[in-house]
Specification:
Strand order of the largest sheet: 10-9-8-11-13-12
Strand content: 15-25%
Order of helices and strands: EEEHEEEEEHEHEHEHEEHHHH
Bound molecules: guanosine-5'-triphosphate, magnesium ion, zinc ion
Number of helices: 9
Number of strands: 13
Length: 276
Amino acid sequence: MENNNEIVLSKARGVFRNQNIKPVVGDNVKLSINNDGTGYIDEVFERKNQLLRPPIANVDQVIVVMSILSPDINLNLLDRYLLMLEKSKVDIKIIFNKIDLLKNDDLNYIFDIYRNIGYEIFLNSNNETKNIETLKKIFNNKITAVAGPSGVGKSTTLNNVFEDLDLDTGLVSKKTQRGKHTTRTVKMLKINENTYIIDTPGFSSLDLSFIEDRAEIRDNFIEFKKFSANCKFHNCFHINEPSCAVKEAVKVGDISEYRYNNYKLILEEYDNIRRY
Ligand SMILES: Nc1nc2c(ncn2[C@@H]2O[C@H](COP(=O)(O)OP(=O)(O)OP(=O)(O)O)[C@@H](O)[C@H]2O)c(=O)[nH]1
Ligand SMILES: [Mg+2]
Ligand SMILES: [Zn+2]
């Protein structure tokens, strides 16, 4: 815990266990300091928001990092993660990383999908320094969690932007092109008085157990909202219903077909889990 700019090793009091509150990274707490300089967390103050995976509280924004190659870009995983973040009501930005590995393929259509939804996106390579000032500004005066699959370059990007950092980074497996889960714990670091970054362990998949209600899936594909008011049925899920404005928007290209297909896949997976 940070207390008047000092780090205090702290334990949570037993009462939390009874109240089912577990302090997480980012929490603001009431501390009592023991004679030996260690601390006790007496109270966890109300959280302005809470991320589910990994559990973090009170962030101003989450930057999702995805590499375009090594590991390959995975839009289904990205859409799942966005779905989860939208539920937490945090600001979201996306870094498409390892842009140096892009050879001939034109991935602009992918970048456009997310730009058109309204997410601020950045194309980055850590072999270069030209983005550093831009990214530094993004982090400035905020609490930012950096999240994404293992091996996409979260820790490397943070090291690149903030010269003084020396976070562990690891090679991507040559054979599977997957990250090796180098970052093992959620780590909050202070850059200056009002700027904190949180490096998080990468994941390779994301199950849907965070979803409590089927409608959440629909409502957190946020670009549907603009159209769904014009669906014939008030409670339209945009699957087989007649006169569906969302499906119409997909047809004419106002909503990305990739996103819509991922929506259908996620909804189907959720329904299958519920059935058993
Ligand atoms: N070509 C290229 N490689 C990069 C870039 N950024 C990171 N890497 C490499 O990708 C590998 C994984 O980087 P990490 O920073 O450890 O990835 P991470 O996202 O923190 O991974 P976890 O901690 O496992 O979640 C390392 O070998 C980095 O050198 C980039 O922009 N271009
Ligand atoms: Mg890492
Ligand atoms: Zn509809």
